[in-house]
Fold:
Amino acid sequence: MTTGSTVRDTVKAYYDARFAGDVAAAAALIGQDFVFRSPFITSDSPEGHLDGLEGLLGIVSHVDLISELYGEDDATLVYDIHTVPAVGITQRTAEHFRLRDGDGRISAITLIFDSAPWQAIMAAAGPAR
Structure:
């Protein structure tokens, strides 16, 4: 069983690394047999999940963490992503993490948000992988 403090440490380190653009540090916290699901992206690998991070961070001005909920092997973060004025989106986002028993690394992430404001941006970016 993973402990609550291990869950908190792992999820916060992942969140901080991802929004700092440190793909290597974020990927190191993800275990094998990883699954990611969001309104736009489905991935079964850390590399696929983090592939578009640089593009996202290029339009994000800042992120406000609103709530953190930690269990024994899962966590949920709620935050607002604020984009640069040219994009003009503030997105309320919920992210659920599941950690694998034993190694304490992230085995699944489900990202939940209203995708409507992003439709034009995603269409301009091209087909999803």
Observations:
- The beta strands are 30-37, 42-43, 60-70, 74-83, 90-99, 106-112.
- The CA atoms of residues 41 and 128 lie 7 Å apart.
